[in-house]
Amino acid sequence: MKELLHRIRSVPKVIGVLTVDTRESRIYDSFPTQQLCADFQDVAAKLGKLSEALLDKGLLSFHFSDKTAFAYVDSHFHILILAETGVEINLLKTRLMELLTILNRQRRSPMTTEIDADIISPSLVDEDILVKALNELSRQVRQTLSGYIASRELKNARDKLLNVYQFFKGLYIDNSGNCAIINSPLTSDKAELYAALGQLYEDFRAAGHKVSPKTKLSSLTDHLGAHYNNQFYSNRKK
Amino acid sequence: MMLNGIDDLLPKMDSETDEGGILKIIEKVRLIENCVLLEVIDQSGQAVYTVASTHQLYGKSLTSAVRAFAGFLSDKLQCGDFRRASLHSPSKNFCWATLDNHLFTLQSPKPEATLIKFSEIIESDERASS
Known about the structure:
The complex is a heterodimer of chains A (238) and B (130). Chain A has eight helices and seven strands, in the order αββαβββαααββααα. With 238 residues, chain A is α+β, with helices and mostly antiparallel strands. Chain A has two domains: 104 residues, Beta-Lactamase (2-Layer Sandwich), CATH 3.30.450.30; 116 residues, no CATH class. Chain A has a five-stranded antiparallel β-sheet, with helices on both faces. The radius of gyration of chain A is 20 Å and the shape is elongated. With 130 residues, chain B is of the alpha+beta class. Chain B has a single domain, classed as Dynein light chain 2a, cytoplasmic (Beta-Lactamase). Helices cover 38% and strands 23% of the residues of chain B. Chain B has three helices and five strands. Chain B has a five-stranded antiparallel β-sheet with strand order 2-1-5-4-3, with helices on both faces. In chain B, β1 and β2 form a beta hairpin. The termini of chain B are far apart. Chains A and B meet through α2, β3 and β4 of A and α2 and β3 of B. β3 of chain A pairs antiparallel with β3 of chain B, so a sheet runs across the interface.
């Protein structure tokens, strides 16, 4: 890892780089000590907040009067690169891509979905996890069909359930099919929340299959495991 | 479909109280091609301009996160004053630019190109006023 980070630091004007492996909660850094006033845990926490806001993976470039920073976030890795103004951005992006390629290759087990069932515990099955599952399904629909279809079908599925679960008014869906909770929690009734989001997931998946029967879309069980899946069906209203 | 009529413009200040001519800049920025100006907020976070659209909701939370992170970098990592930022993601591309303690949030397929256009507007405005 040190060698990988050193390759990024070797880009002229790069000050330092910090990588967070979110699955293993490990932080790797290559910073001159005097450059960071904040501790690494603090930086990692801020990157985590940024990742939550993105709902997806992304690369953010920040330009300041004195420095430039790049923040890459996805569901597995968060990376912060700090550089002097005028850094060669294309070279840096190439090195970043190299780092990500190697990090992904080094994962111990290949991921079939964005959400790894073995990290789900009962206390973690909350609306955030369910929304992540919905977003992962939406990503699959978007990749195989289109963002427009993902958005349309997810909105349709939500709207059909609105008269049963009125709190779905607080579930925002953008034009690419990404969803986010505007008013959290959607409801304080956990059982109802599981049933509602589980049903929305299933309806959306069925709609995706209807548009393209050959498309392989993950079930909720794929994400959360059969044991937790049961919770989503016991309190249904429809 | 993004609304683009005059109803979208919710000015918090009129032309007489428009210190620094920010409304004039906003009008010019709104005309940049292939992008949508979603919001302009002042230093206290108050909206000077906002698009009346549900699209703005995602942009709003994102802007809040970007502001917080930029503030963190500025303070703790001694980066200096925040100037601009851009986001590339599979589903959304945004950019942010600052001017006279105002933060502009734009949604654009090509954030860097939009930021260049933004700079050009500022420069031409400075030339016009000098």
